[in-house]
Specification:
single chain, mainly alpha, Rossmann fold, Arc Repressor Mutant, subunit A, 6-stranded mixed β-sheet, 3-stranded antiparallel β-sheet, 42 helices, coiled coil
Length: 982
């Protein structure tokens, strides 16, 4: 029994020992990442917060004079708000943090992370759950440069920790705000430590037995840390000591140091030797370091490391070049320093990695961003060539490399270089994803996929839109596996918005309706997360939703989707008011203009086109050529399209010419900015639009000259669009080119130009079939039918008319399920015209029946309220063909149908508005009544015929139309004679 008890005791002791070892090892790992782990505020020593500045020789004084900002910090912490303290160098930010912690009661625990790369998100367990958690980030902008910091930060927020942070004012704060606070909206504002006056500085100096330094800059710390005495101290240094401090400063500015300004002695020696040509013995080296330590510039640590006072390093210790004034001179000094150190440490993986990250973050807040990013790229690529990275470092290095390339792509104005930078970024992001990601770093996995999607989206705009937009969709969907609505609502919304944009790009080249539906779904999901998004992002999502509805309207439910688009854009106006967001306001106006333009093809063409032009012209007041040449050119292009549509809706020839010439003028102006070299795709689009305008103008004047100009413009577009690059745009250009050849065929070499047009349409149909572009397929068949119809006038009349019928019927089938009323109606109208011509050649009765049947169907798409001209023209043709059919079959019914058609036409052709058309229709109506009177021997029909002839003669008078007057007069005498004998 005793043996069993002994064995059990041993087992318990072993288990306890193992658990203790695990806890101890875990604690030791945590100590590598944290300075303070959940201690009560009163137990936190000042050096844990303030580092060296907690030492008397570096300015620490027990006396502390509270300021207005301290009271505000306490109030915010008491209410559980996150606090960000800002101020100039030596304003006392770190001391404010320490004093705020010291003033807290017992109901808090403090966690202080170290400034290190994070291998994963390991937040120490907080056992005293009843106490509030405070996490301190002194110089939080520096933490941003560390691997996986965002992961850690989010995990802390998730655990309801209160963030107490500091950040230096100026570029450091701007960079921080851009990277963290803009994304997470963590800090509602910031507590700024104001500069102190000279009088307050004198009082503080008197209380602490100090003196206010000459050149006092308003920072309290300057009274205690004698930064302004640096010059005098430097004068007491020897040449080699100055070179050592200059080397430290070079390393500091390039980010090549550990934690908080701890430098490798070996690296300092390398810089001294190679940059400043310092060559001394180990004894002399130790002597110089000892001297600098006595003067307070640095401290010699164990393990061949040096600790230098950051404030001294920032105030140009030992290097005159650092005193350069102005951002341009300072940037050049920093850039030269980066290149010098890259040469020195070309075999040092850690130094290159650190240098690259520093260059990247310098670039984020510099006017010379691209130059800094190129330095980062060079450093990262050199580090990769050394093959010294472990898996996690390798993934981080590739991610940083990709981020630098992405930044270059966002700033570079050369389109080819921008695309190349994107391709390099994609390569690096995918390489980072190829490394097995630690399960605790899923946020980084999502972030890489998000950025990868952004790069593919940029590439999709330039080339291979189908492939790149599809890859962007895949990347965003991968990110959304981590960015769930519950865990990461803001990232979920932002990624859904980007996913919608990727689907919209994809819709431009494949499955337009399907991809627009998917885009709309994504935008709606983004908008569902209203509370998690800044209002500007919600407004942008509304605009994106509206644009997707407008694109969908081109394929389905045109009217309803356009109205939905306009409604979505108007929601964006609630945020994008012109006084606060003039550029976004202009962008929204342009989008509304496009929606009205698209709506014009469904109803009220002239009215909606004028609304579109009004919106575009207001938008262009903000997006001027001088400030926004690309956007200016885009709006000009849209104004041109609206004027072309106005010309098509107009019946007055002079006004049509005016609108078309206006369109051509703005297209040409647009091409001054949309050049072939810089914006090839936009250049080609505008050339196509110019060609279409010339073709429409050719129908009104100078047909041959304008048709040739149209052909030249479309051929210019084909220099950009090819089967391998943007095949759908290539197919669309072929169709437009075919139409231009049909226009030219009216005047010159009809057979040759019509044949070319037919061949262009056939080639385009192959691409539309492959990509499931039903609408474009239908419109191309329509154009091919026009070409065959015109070709029938030159050769093989009957055969080509039959081919025209086939083409129109194919367009009819493709359009049957689509809501494209005007296009569908035009196809039916042309089909009926073709049947009417065929009736003159063969199967007269059968073809006349088909003619009348198709005209009746076409009228459904041209209601009198919105398409009066088309309605009346078709009714006239219908009446004429019913008259012809009445001669062959069912004479009485067909004559009645003819009468009905002519009467319907007279609903449009009023005498005071269309006098000639009115009189001509009255004469035709009289003829139809005459035929009907013969069949029924009806006096009423003869009387109606006589009335119709007399109405015609009110316009066709003997003086104005002598020949027509005689014809109508004979018709009247004949019908009166018939009436007398009936």
């Amino acid at each position: 029994m005793a043996g069993i008890v002994r064995e059990a005791a041993v087992a318990v002791i072993v288990v306890i020992a193992v658990l203790a070892a695990i806890i101890y090892c875990g604690r030791m790992r945590q100590k590598k990442c944290y300075t303070v782990i959940w201690k009560k505020p009163g137990a936190v020593a000042p050096e844990k917060v303030m580092c060296c500045y907690a030492l008397p020789e570096y300015g620490y004084n027990e006396y502390y004079q509270e300021r207005e900002s301290d009271e505000k910090i306490k109030e915010m912490l008491a209410t559980g708000e996150h606090v960000l303290i800002t101020g100039i160098t030596l304003s006392g930010k770190s001391r404010s943090i320490y004093q705020a912690l010291a003033a807290l009661g017992r109901g808090y625990d403090v966690l202080i992370p170290r400034l290190v790369d994070w291998p994963g998100v390991r937040v120490p367990w907080h056992f005293c759950f009843w106490r509030k958690k405070i996490v301190v980030f002194d110089d939080i902008n520096e933490f941003l440069k560390k691997q996986n910091f965002i992961c850690l930060f989010r995990e802390l927020l998730k655990r309801k920790a209160i963030i107490l942070a500091s950040c230096r004012s100026g570029t450091d704060y701007d960079g921080f705000y851009e990277k963290i606070n803009r994304e997470l909206a963590v800090f509602a504002g910031h507590v700024h430590i104001a500069d102190i006056s000279w009088e307050a500085a004198e009082r503080l100096a008197a209380m602490t037995r100090r003196e206010v330094p000459h050149g006092f800059d308003g920072s309290a710390g300057a009274i205690f840390l004698r930064v302004h005495e640096t010059g005098a101290l430097c004068k007491s240094c020897g040449e080699q000591e100055k070179n050592i401090m200059a080397s430290l400063r070079c390393l500091y500015l390039a980010g090549v140091y550990k934690k908080r300004e701890i430098f490798s002695t070996d690296r300092v020696k390398q810089v001294c030797c190679k940059k400043y040509e310092v060559d001394c013995t180990a004894y002399d080296w130790d002597k110089y370091l000892s001297s600098l330590q006595k003067k307070g510039f640095l401290r010699v640590l164990k393990n061949r490391q040096l600790w230098a006072v950051k404030t001294y390093l920032e105030h140009s210790v030992g290097d005159a070049a650092a005193n350069l004034d102005g951002p341009v001179a300072r940037d050049q000094f920093l850039i030269d320093n980066f290149y010098d150190l890259m040469d020195i440490f070309n075999e040092d993986f850690i130094a290159l990695f650190s240098l690259g990250k520093q260059a990247y973050y310098r670039g984020m807040s510099s006017q010379r961003e691209v130059q800094y990013m190129m330095i980062a790229v060079a450093a990262f690529e050199q580090a990769l060539r050394l093959e010294a990275a472990g898996a996690e470092d390798y993934a981080a290095l590739q991610f940083n490399l990709a981020s630098a390339y992405s930044s270059i792509a966002g700033k570079d104005e050369d389109e080819e270089e921008k695309a190349e930078a994107c391709r390099q970024a994609v390569k690096a992001y995918e390489e980072a994803l190829s490394v097995k990601i630690n399960c605790l770093c899923l946020f980084d996995f999502a972030r890489i996929n998000y950025e990868l999607g952004n790069c593919y989206s940029i590439l999709a705009v330039r080339d291979n839109k189908s492939h790149n937009s599809k890859k962007a969709v895949q990347a965003y969907r991968a990110a959304l596996k981590v960015y769930t609505a519950k865990r990461f609502p803001e990232e979920f919304a932002r990624t859904q918005n980007k996913l919608g944009l990727a689907f919209s790009l994809w819709a431009e080249v494949e499955d337009k309706a399907g991809n627009c539906d998917r885009a709309i779904e994504s935008f709606k999901k983004a908008l569902e997360m209203q509370a998690a998004q800044p209002e500007t992002e919600r407004a942008s999502a509304q605009n994106n939703l509206g644009a997707a509805y407008t694109m969908l309207a081109e394929s389905r439910d045109r009217r309803d989707n356009c109205l939905r688009a306009i409604q979505a854009h108007e929601q964006a106006f609630k945020v994008f008011v012109k006084d606060e967001y003039p550029m976004e306001y202009a962008c929204t106006l342009a989008a509304i203009g496009r929606a009205y333009y698209t709506l014009s093809w469904a109803e009220n063409k002239t009215e909606n086109c004028l609304k579109a032009v009004k919106a575009y012209e207001e938008a262009i007041e903000y997006r001027t050529a001088a400030l926004f040449p690309v956007q200016y050119a885009s709006i000009l292009n849209n104004i041109g399209k609206a004027h072309c549509a106005l010309a098509e809706a107009e019946e007055n020839g002079e006004k049509q010419i005016k609108y078309l010439k206006k369109a051509i003028g703005v297209y040409c102006d647009s091409l001054n900015y949309r050049t072939f070299r810089n914006y090839p795709v936009e250049y080609a689009v505008t050339q196509n639009n110019t060609g279409s305008a010339y073709r429409l103008l050719a129908a009104l004047e100078q047909r041959k000259e304008n048709s040739l100009l149209a052909i030249a413009a479309h051929e210019e577009a084909l220099k950009v669009f090819s089967p391998g690059n943007l095949p759908i745009q290539y197919a669309g250009t072929l169709v437009k080119l075919g139409k231009a050849h049909v226009s030219l065929a009216v005047e010159a070499d009809k057979a040759r130009h019509c044949t070319r047009a037919i061949n262009y349409c056939r080639e385009a149909l192959d691409y539309y079939d492959r990509q499931m572009y039903s609408v474009e397929h239908a419109l191309t068949c329509f154009s091919m039918g026009d070409a065959y119809l015109l070709l029938s006038e030159a050769e093989d009349e009957e055969e080509n008319l039959k081919r025209a019928v086939q083409a129109y019927e194919q367009a009819f089938k493709k359009s049957k399920r689509l809501d494209l009323p005007l296009d569908y109606g035009d196809a039916l109208h042309k089909l009926a015209d073709t049947f009417s011509k065929l009736a003159e050649l063969a199967n007269k009765e059968d073809n006349l029946k088909k003619t009348c049947q198709v005209y009746e169907e076409a009228l459904k798409y041209f209601p009198i309220e919105s398409s009066a001209g088309q309605f009346a023209a078709i009714q006239i043709k219908l009446g004429h063909n019913y008259n012809l059919l009445a001669e062959l079959a069912d004479r009485e019914q067909n004559s009645r149908n003819a009468v009905k058609a002519f009467r319907e036409a007279l609903r449009v052709y009023k005498r005071d508005i269309y006098p000639v058309q009115y009189a001509s229709t009255c004469n035709k109506l009289g003829n139809a009544y005459t035929v009907l009177g013969r069949l029924e021997n009806s006096a009423a029909n003869y009387n109606n015929a006589a009335v119709s002839y007399r109405n015609a003669m009110t316009v066709f008078t003997k003086e104005a139309f002598p020949e027509v007057y005689q014809v109508v007069e004979r018709n009247l005498y004949r019908v009166l004679h018939m009436a007398d004998n009936s």
